[in-house]
Design goal:
By secondary structure, the chain is of the alpha+beta class. The chain is built from 13 helices and 19 strands. 44% of the residues are buried.
C-alpha cells in the first residue's frame, strides 16, 4: 500500500472538511448601522434616544426592564413585595451581579442610583419619574426598600426606563465616555464620529449571549446608509433613514425588512409661552394648517400612523382625535384672523437631524406658509437641539419624535420644553399615577388625550414606524420598539 498517497489523501480530505466547516461557521459579531450618534454615554443624564439604543440592556440594566412586546419583567431584581397601602416596595436583588469593573452590585448601588436621579441637582432628563420616591432604604446588601409619598401604579414601569438604570458611584466621573454597567456586554471603544464597540462580559450574572461582540456604526446620510447596506459593509441598520429604498431591499434575497411600531409620537412641538404661540386660536390654526397624510407620504413614503394627541395608536387606551385637527387651511386662516394675525406672523422651526424632522419640516413649513405663517427653518445637530430647544426653550416650533414609552405625563410638567401649564391636566396625571385599577387608568388616559387635543398643545403628526433592514440570516432583532433599544443578547445568526 502506498502510505505516502494515503497520507496525502487524508490531508486533502481534512483540508476540505476544515474548509467546509469554516464556510458553515457562524459569525460571532454584528455591525449595526444607526443614523444618530449619542452625544455621550450616560443614559441617566440626557434625553437623546441614541444613548439607549446603544446601551439599554447591553451595558446598563435597571431593576425592571422592557421586553420586546412592551411588557415589564424583572431585571436586576428577582422579586418584589408591595405593602397593603401601596407605598412601600421591597426589592430582592439578583445574586452574583457585578459591574464590568469587577465590583459587586448591591443595594448600596441601587440607593446611590435612585438618590442621584432624584436629587435637587440631578440632570436626569426624566427626573419627574422619581419625584414620588420619598426614601430609598438599604435593608441588607441584597434588599432595598422604596418608600413612596403616595401609591404609584407606574413605579415598576418607570423603573424600566433607560433613565433609571443602576450605576456605580466609582464610575460616575467617566461615565459619559467610559460607561460601566452590569449588562451582558461591556464597553470596548468609542471612535467618535464613526462607531462604538461592545464586547461580551464573561462574568455576566445571566445567560451568556451568542454574539461575542457588537459594533454600532454611525451613518448620518441616508444615501450613505443605503450604499453601506447594499455593499454589506454592515449587517443591519436600525431605524433605516431612507424609507424610499425599502422596496429594493425587499426585492433582494440577501436582506429582510422589518416593519413595526415605535413609541415615537412625532410632533410639531410648540413653545406654549412664546407669543403669539401662547394663543389657543393660533395653535389651533397651526393644527388645521397641517396635512398629516401629506407629511407621512412625503417624508416617510407612507410609513406612519396619523395621531391627534400624544398617544400611541397601538395602546388599548388610544382615542382617535385626529378629526379635531383635520386639515383645513381656510379654517386656519380664519382662526389667525380671529386671533389678530390676519396677515400671519413669523417664527422659527428647529429641525434636528432625523429624516422625519428634516424632510417633514420642509413640508410643514410650506403648509404653514400657505396660511400666512412664515416658519424660518433652522437645521441643528442634536447637541444644539438639546441645548437650545430642550434645555434653553429658545424656539418657536420644532419637530421631534418622543420615543419614551407611555410618556403623556410630560405634559404635567410646566417646565418641560414646550411649557404647557394646565392645572386640570396635572391633577388628572396625579390621579392616574396613584391609580392601580386598569379600567380606571384607561379612562384617565383617554381623558388626558382629549385635554391635550382640545388645548392644541402641539401639532400631532404621526406615530413613527420602526423600519429596519438586516441581512436575511440575522434573527432576534426587535421589530417593534417599546423603548429605544437594540438588545444584542437577543440577536443571533441563523444556522
Amino acid at each position: 500500500m502506498n502510505f505516502g498517497f494515503a497520507r496525502l489523501a487524508t490531508a486533502i480530505i481534512l483540508t476540505m472538511c476544515l474548509s467546509i466547516n469554516s464556510l458553515k461557521a457562524q459569525p460571532t459579531s454584528i455591525t449595526i448601522g444607526m443614523q444618530l450618534e449619542p452625544p455621550h454615554l450616560d443614559p441617566t443624564s440626557a434625553a437623546a434616544q441614541a444613548i439607549d439604543s446603544v446601551l439599554y440592556s447591553n451595558v446598563f440594566e435597571g431593576l425592571t426592564k422592557f421586553r420586546r412586546d412592551g411588557s415589564i419583567v424583572a431585571g436586576l431584581v428577582k422579586s418584589w413585595e408591595i405593602s397593603s397601602d401601596g407605598t412601600e416596595y421591597t426589592f430582592s436583588l439578583q445574586e452574583n451581579v457585578s459591574f464590568h469593573d469587577g465590583t459587586a452590585m448591591d443595594a448600596d448601588d441601587v440607593k446611590f442610583s435612585l438618590d442621584r436621579a432624584r436629587a435637587d441637582d440631578s440632570t436626569n432628563a426624566q427626573k419627574a419619574l422619581f419625584s414620588g420616591i420619598a426614601d430609598v432604604t438599604v435593608i441588607d446588601p441584597q434588599t432595598v426598600k422604596l418608600t413612596l409619598t403616595q401609591p404609584d401604579g407606574n413605579l415598576l414601569f418607570n423603573l424600566a426606563w433607560g433613565d433609571a438604570v443602576i450605576v456605580a458611584p466609582e464610575s460616575i466621573e467617566n461615565i459619559k465616555q467610559k460607561p460601566v454597567g452590569t449588562g451582558p456586554y461591556q464597553f470596548s471603544e468609542w471612535i467618535q464620529g464613526d462607531r462604538i464597540s461592545l464586547t461580551r462580559y464573561p462574568q455576566y450574572w445571566g445567560d451568556q449571549p451568542e454574539l461575542e461582540s457588537g459594533t454600532f456604526k454611525f451613518i448620518s446620510d441616508p444615501t450613505a446608509a443605503f450604499a453601506a447596506m447594499m455593499a454589506e459593509d454592515i449587517d443591519a441598520f436600525s431605524v433605516f433613514p431612507a424609507p424610499e429604498n425599502l422596496p429594493q431591499f425587499e426585492a433582494d434575497p440577501r436582506f429582510q425588512v422589518l416593519v413595526g411600531s415605535t413609541e415615537g409620537e412625532t410632533i410639531l412641538s410648540i413653545n406654549n409661552r412664546r407669543p403669539p404661540l401662547n394663543n389657543l386660536k393660533v395653535r389651533q390654526a397651526i393644527a388645521h394648517a397641517i396635512d398629516r397624510q401629506a407629511i407621512i407620504e412625503g417624508a416617510m413614503f407612507g410609513y406612519g400612523t396619523p395621531i391627534g394627541s400624544h398617544f400611541a395608536p397601538h395602546h388599548p387606551a388610544y382615542v382617535d382625535l385626529t378629526s379635531l385637527s383635520a386639515y383645513d387651511p381656510d379654517k386656519a386662516k380664519a382662526l389667525l384672523a380671529e386671533a389678530g394675525f390676519a396677515d400671519g406672523f413669523e417664527t422659527t422651526l428647529h429641525l434636528p437631524p432625523p429624516s422625519y424632522a428634516r424632510r417633514g419640516g420642509e413640508i410643514v413649513a410650506a403648509q404653514l406658509a400657505e396660511v400666512g405663517i412664515k416658519a424660518k427653518i433652522m437645521n441643528v445637530e442634536w447637541a444644539q437641539w438639546l441645548e437650545t430647544v430642550f434645555r434653553g426653550k429658545d424656539f418657536g416650533l420644532t419637530i421631534v419624535s418622543h420615543t419614551e414609552p407611555l410618556d403623556i405625563g410630560i405634559y404635567a410638567r410646566p417646565e418641560y420644553y414646550f411649557q404647557y401649564d394646565n392645572s386640570e391636566f396635572r391633577e388628572l396625571i396625579a390621579t392616574l399615577n396613584s391609580t392601580a385599577d386598569p379600567d380606571q387608568r384607561q379612562t384617565l388616559l383617554q381623558d388626558a388625550q382629549r385635554i391635550l387635543a382640545s388645548d392644541y398643545v402641539n401639532g400631532y403628526l404621526f406615530q413613527l414606524a420602526s423600519l429596519s433592514v438586516a441581512k436575511s440570516e440575522i434573527k432576534g432583532l426587535w421589530e417593534d420598539l417599546p423603548t429605544a433599544a437594540i438588545p444584542l443578547n437577543e440577536i443571533s445568526w441563523a444556522n
